[in-house]
Amino acid sequence: MSLISLKDVSFSYEGRIVLSGVSFELSDGDYLCVVGENGAGKSTLLKGLLGLKKPSGGQILFGDGLSNSEIGCLPQQTQTQRDFPASVWEVVLSGCLNRLSFFPFYRRRERERAEQAMEYLKITGLRKHCYRNLSGGQQQRTLLARALCATSKLLILDEPVSGLDPRAQLELYELVRELNRKLHITIIMVSHDVRQALPYANKVLHLAHKQLFFGGREEYLETELGKGFLKGGEQ
User: Does the pLDDT of residue 235 top 50, yes or no?
Assistant: First the structure.
């Protein structure tokens, strides 16, 4: 059974269709790269997957017991979020909030999960550091560890390397691939940095207010759409 399945999904704002005809399926361990120009509907799709935007048509179905609250998300950061005055440990542990249910305190299992997430993202040594004093790359690792606390099945990443220097970008891409391969976590990543992001994915979704392509990476690279988008550089 598919982990996530979309069937002719569309979204609208104030009665105007902004994204239509989205149909695809992802299984455990897939790595999907979502591409398209600015305003193509990528962020709208992510909001729909997270349950923040209701489809105006079609269906979004989850399998393997997955629900919206069990999806780990790494959104684009605002300046206010970058200046958040909390320790790395506090930020990462907050990713376990959806696991508390009616229990008001973090238990041993949540703390162990946070410790494990920090180990995966190689930030254990930063646990007492203030989040706002970290480098951009360290902040993204911290937020990715937080997202990992929320899920063992699906991570959604929205422009995760935006604003990072080339070295930090490469390190983050490698860490995400490691989570995908070693933990078998399904990845959905939106990225403008198509040339760097595509090699890590096994599937591609191209949007332009509607679905233009969904399929394997190699197949996409052979299409005129894929060749043209890559040739155009950063969109």
Answer: no
